[in-house]
Structure formats: structure tokens, C-alpha cells
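Q: Please design a sequence for this.
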């Protein structure tokens, strides 16, 4: 029968000033506090984090912190899953195997945080194998994501979770073991915002059978485009993939927006037919849509370029301004179905204006499309010119000139019409 041991390890608001370092300052967890390594560790040489932090920027900060530990080169890897809502089974003596939710809470199982900004509850069995390690993040203090010096009262979520995920790995506070060393694992939030040499040595001491240092994970981008329109109009937003050489067969991302000014019917999201995939989209909540590009009918890799397009309706009462389309919960999957790490994405926007966007191909904004304009667009498409030479050619705001946009410009030129206003200029 398993006899679990549960240890709560908190991270306090404090300023630490490290004057010198020692060769081996890292410490490991134990039931009596920090001890020299080795200590309890994951027999599986990896752990899954179930992240539910509410916003795309906070979820991304958590993903980056997990990836930082995975990139050390130790025989340990984090897998990240994004979840929603509050987790369950986190206050039992020892929760489910490999259940490591990361979430905001106003207490730790009914107990106040005090001066602690986050706490990891690490549980291991009689064989010193870690079972799970939920991470409670104090919702009663202020949070942001930033680099550089610690600037209270705003706590940097990335460096705090970098510290807490070190506890989940099995590391503890070296400064509480009498060591003087620069480390993210020291107790107390400080100006240190990244893993230090001592932190890396610590995880390698626990998971020493490391494979050769892996090739850095490609940074996969799922980017939301932008568009411009007037009150009461519809605009099309294109979401694109830049895989940086990775083999991506399926993707997922959220689009959140101001539901008072914009609306997005998931049924009006259409997959790019050229990539041979299917699409599933649904509303998660008001102003929140989740879109999956699925690896069917085939599991082949998706080429860089447009993934899908969604139609966004602008409310008739929308005021002229730029409305962000926030990108969140970005995920990508290999042809074998494995979730890929290093996935990020750029936000898009809808610009609501009483002055309409120039007609496709009107590079000089002189209310006509000329042969010279079309040649400029062709050169941009071929990589011989930059997009700023003809921003009016990029109708869908995806950052590139496509054949369809060139054909539309040619059609506008053949029509030989002056571009008129669709809204009066005040």
C-alpha cells in the first residue's frame, strides 16, 4: 500500500541579494525541509502540467517556464496541457498520479497564503517517487509578466512559476540549506528571472541520465491576422501558420474579442481548402471562440501560410477604434498526434473606421489601381519588394500578397473605376 508524504513549499515576497556563489548549492525536497540531493523524483522522468490561469498571456508564461526546465538537457521533460475551470482532488493527502494543476486560488485548501505568492504541494511515495505536485497561485496579489528587476507590488508570473516548477521537479531552496548561490530556486522573489547554472546543475543531479542536449525546439507561430471595416460591416480574418521547419499536422487556438463591438459565428470559420484538413470551431463563452484545425482526412504536415478564415461582424454601434483579437491556448500537434512544444502566436485586430480601407491594389491611395500597382504587388509576392510598398494589396491582413489579391487588383484595374466612399467622411 502506498504511504504518501506531502510537503507544501511556498514562495514568499522578498528581496534576495546574492554576493557570491558556491559550486554545488542546489537542494532537494524532503519531509523535513531542504536537504542535499538526491531526493524524491519522478520515476517516469517527466510530468504533465494542467495549466488553467485564465488568460493567454498567463498560460503562455507558464508554458515558457515549463519549456525552460525541459530545455536544460536533463532526462526530464514537462508536458503541458491547457485546462479551464478550477481543478478537483488537489486537497487530498495525495492526489491522482501525475495530476499537477497550475491555477489561481485565494487559499491553499482553506489556509491563507500569508506572505506567500505561490505554493507547490509535492507528494511522493515510500519509494521516493513523486506522485503529483499541484501549484497554487495566490489570486489576492497583483500579477504581470515581465523581464528584469522585480518590481513589487506586481509579481512576475514567469519567474514565480519557474521556481514552482523547480519544486515539482524535486528541487528545494538552496539558501535555506546554508548555501549562498545565485538561483531561481532560492526562497523569495528576486531580480533573478531565469534559470541559473545552479538550477541546471540541480535538475541534472536528479535526472543524471540525460540524453545529448536536444536540438532547440522550433518556435511554431499561429498568428491571427487583421482587417479594417466600418460599423455594420463584415470582415474576414485569416489565421496563418509559421512552423519554422516543424512538422505540424493539426492546430488549436482561441480567439477572444470585445463582444460589445464584434461578433464571430463559429459556423463562419472555414478551413483553407488547399491544406486538406477539416475544421471544428465553437463558442467557449461570450467573446471567446476556440478553433481546431484537425488532422483529417489526412495527417500530412501543413505548409506555412493560411490555416483558416473567420468572418467577424462589426456592430452598427461600434465606435471607431482598434479592437484586439487576442490569441490564446495555442497548440500544435505532429502527424503522430504528439503535442509539440514551443508554440506561440500573435494577436490580430479589427480596425473600425468611418473611412474605408483602400481598394485592393490601390498602392498609392489615389483612388485608382494602375499597372504599376499590380507590378508592385507581384514583386512583393515574389519577395522582391516589401509589404509596406503596397499595404492596400494585403486585403485580408495576413502579411503577404496572394494570387487571389493580385487577381482582385487586376479586376479593379480593368473596371477602371474610381474608388468611392462607403461611409461619409465627417
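A: Design:
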Amino acid at each position: 500500500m502506498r504511504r504518501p508524504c506531502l510537503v507544501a513549499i511556498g514562495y514568499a515576497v522578498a528581496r534576495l541579494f546574492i554576493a557570491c556563489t558556491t559550486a554545488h548549492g542546489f537542494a532537494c525536497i524532503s519531509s523535513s525541509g531542504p536537504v542535499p540531493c538526491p531526493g524524491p523524483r519522478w520515476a517516469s522522468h517527466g510530468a504533465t502540467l494542467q495549466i488553467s490561469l485564465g488568460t493567454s498571456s498567463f498560460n503562455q508564461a507558464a508554458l515558457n517556464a515549463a519549456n525552460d526546465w525541459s530545455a536544460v538537457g536533463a532526462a526530464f521533460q514537462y508536458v503541458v496541457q491547457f485546462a479551464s475551470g478550477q481543478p478537483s482532488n488537489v486537497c487530498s493527502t495525495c492526489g491522482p498520479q501525475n495530476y499537477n494543476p497550475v491555477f489561481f486560488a485565494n487559499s491553499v485548501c482553506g489556509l491563507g497564503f500569508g506572505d506567500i505568492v505561490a505554493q507547490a504541494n509535492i507528494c511522493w511515495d515510500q519509494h521516493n517517487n513523486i506522485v503529483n505536485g499541484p501549484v497554487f497561485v495566490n489570486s489576492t496579489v497583483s500579477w504581470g509578466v515581465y523581464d528584469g528587476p522585480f518590481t513589487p507590488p506586481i509579481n512576475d508570473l514567469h519567474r514565480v512559476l519557474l521556481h514552482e516548477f523547480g519544486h515539482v521537479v524535486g528541487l528545494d531552496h538552496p539558501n535555506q540549506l546554508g548555501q549562498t548561490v545565485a538561483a531561481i530556486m532560492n526562497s523569495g522573489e528576486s531580480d533573478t528571472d531565469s534559470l541559473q547554472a545552479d538550477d541546471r546543475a540541480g535538475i541534472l543531479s536528479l535526472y543524471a541520465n540525460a540524453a545529448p542536449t536536444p536540438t532547440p525546439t522550433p518556435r511554431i507561430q499561429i498568428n491571427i491576422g487583421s482587417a479594417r471595416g466600418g460599423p455594420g460591416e463584415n470582415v474576414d480574418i485569416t489565421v496563418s501558420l509559421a512552423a519554422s521547419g516543424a512538422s505540424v499536422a493539426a492546430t488549436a487556438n482561441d480567439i477572444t474579442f470585445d463582444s460589445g463591438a464584434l461578433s464571430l459565428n463559429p459556423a463562419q470559420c472555414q478551413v483553407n481548402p488547399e491544406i486538406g484538413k477539416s475544421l471544428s470551431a465553437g463558442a467557449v463563452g461570450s467573446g471567446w471562440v476556440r478553433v481546431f484545425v484537425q488532422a483529417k482526412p489526412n495527417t500530412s504536415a501543413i505548409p506555412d501560410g493560411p490555416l483558416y478564415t473567420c468572418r467577424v461582424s462589426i456592430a452598427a454601434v461600434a465606435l471607431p477604434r482598434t479592437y484586439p483579437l487576442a490569441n490564446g491556448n495555442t497548440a500544435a500537434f505532429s502527424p503522430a498526434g504528439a503535442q509539440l512544444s514551443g508554440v506561440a502566436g500573435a494577436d490580430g485586430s479589427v480596425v473600425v473606421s468611418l473611412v474605408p480601407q483602400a481598394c485592393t491594389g490601390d498602392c498609392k491611395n489615389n483612388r485608382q489601381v494602375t499597372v504599376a500597382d499590380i507590378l508592385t504587388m507581384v514583386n512583393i509576392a515574389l519577395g522582391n519588394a516589401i509589404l509596406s510598398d503596397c499595404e492596400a494589396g494585403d486585403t485580408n491582413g495576413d502579411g503577404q500578397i496572394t494570387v487571389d489579391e493580385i487577381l482582385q487588383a487586376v479586376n479593379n484595374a480593368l473596371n477602371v473605376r474610381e474608388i468611392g466612399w462607403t461611409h461619409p467622411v465627417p
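Q: Thanks. Anything notable?
A: Residues 5-206 form a domain with the Collagenase (Catalytic Domain) fold (CATH 3.40.390.10). Residues 259 and 287 are 5 Å apart (CA to CA).
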